[in-house]
Design goal:
Order of helices and strands: H
Structural class: mainly alpha
Mean pLDDT: 94
Distance between the termini: 110 Å
């Protein structure tokens, strides 16, 4: 009887060890995925900043051109 109990305990421990190893592997995969997403987010944030700066520059140029057009219209 004791041998049967020890065998069951051994199987449970082996199962837990396998599950732990799988969870540890999955955790490492998720950490790697998170690192990749963080890098991707940083790259996209940098692009957004670039686009915002470009938009401001274009807006300044358009405002300047509109002002020139308004000056031309007034002089006519």
């Amino acid at each position: 009887m004791e041998l049967l109990i020890l065998k069951e305990l051994e199987e449970k421990i082996k199962g837990l060890a396998r599950e732990h190893a799988l969870l540890k592997k999955r955790n490492l995969e998720l950490e790697e995925s998170l690192r990749n997403k963080t890098v991707e987010l940083e790259e996209l944030s940098a692009k957004i900043k670039e686009f915002d700066e470009e938009r401001v520059a274009i807006r300044v140029k358009v405002d300047s051109l509109l002002e020139l057009l308004s000056d031309v219209s007034v002089h006519e």
